[in-house]
Task: structure prediction
Amino acid sequence: MEDPKSCPRCGSSNLKQEEDVLDTWFSSSLWPMSTLGWPDDTDDFRRFYPTSLLITGYDIIYFWVARMIMMGLEFTDKMPFRDVYITGLVRDEKGRKMSKSLGNVIDPMDIVRELGADSLRFALTSLVTEGQDVNIGRERLEGARNFANKIWNAGRFILMSVKDPVKPESLDELDVFSKWILSITDEMIERVTSYYDNYDFNEIAQSLYSFFWDHFCDWYIEISKLLLKNNPGNISWVLLYVFRTYLKLLHPVMPFITEELWEYVRDNDSMLSVTDWPIPSGFRDQKSIREANVIFDVIKTLRSLKQEMGISFEKKIPGFVHSETYGELLRGQKDIISSLAKIEPLEILPEVLPPQKGIISTVRSDFEAYVKIGDIVDIDEEIERIKEKIEEIEGQISRIEERLQNKDFLLKAKEEAKEKERTRRENLIKEKERLLNRLSLLSAQSDG
Result:
């Protein structure tokens, strides 16, 4: 832009440029110091400056971050912060920038009122990767709400179940499952603390989610319902210890539900927000971890065999397991395997079971598992039914593929409609694969 030669209003050529001009970001560049009372030598300034962490978006690194560093070094000879965490932008689930014209704006206060602040915090934390944009939609937010409900219900179970908790004199006295959960809890403390130290927020969320849902709830809480009958004191202590530790680790991400639950299970007078951070004890029983995982694999395999045959999870059917390596372990945990797999009666065999009509099996690296279906499933009728279903699915897949290759459809249909068809095709392909696997198992029975 050229300098003006004269005033457009009065025509005077006696022009002088304004000298008292500041950069738009000038006051913002002083923010780390001015908020603490600088240029006065205040108590807050001496205590809190320089700060530890700045969180900001990648779009203002030059405009704001660089200027704050420049001013901090100029006026205090110190960097104003130790670390800078660069966030991305929040977009909708399809990666589009949120805008009123697209109708895809998510008002965080609406989410807080409907699903809770903790749900919003956890959903965002689970998606955050340094410097990358965050795509968030309704499904992810509702999943976080369901996770909060899971935590609350687990807390209710523990409060209703624990009775006079007693810490064992030695953790080695505990059963294999209690030593397993204490071992992986100790590993989690170390791992999640490291993630916090390194600002790996999505890893924090994913680790805490997986531990709680996949390990603590799906396995230990279910097993504890049986263990509490014979050893209520020690099992109550384990439940409370793991749950308290978990609340501490989750608190920075979901502060409200964890603080509320802490009021019921705390072991000191402090609020959770100021209680001591958990420190790893070093208890890692690798033998118990290995043995517990074998038992879990046996249970999952027996469940899977039932599912492959279309047998309800709750339906109890006879089953057998053989293991050269872990036979003694499985015999000692037969009641728990039977209860969680819904296999009754369950027999731990000393030898491999020869092929028999009406019994299907699968082989794993450490064991062989069998379930008896002859009294429940008419094998020949089921084979014919599956063949008809596969033929029906193949027809549906063929029609979808024709539609996806149709130029008129590709030209006129909205992207959402195309994606819906692709997803439907993938689901049908998976269903066909599942049926083919079931057909293979049943055909082997029919041939036998």
Notes: Residues 86 and 173 are 48 Å apart (CA to CA).
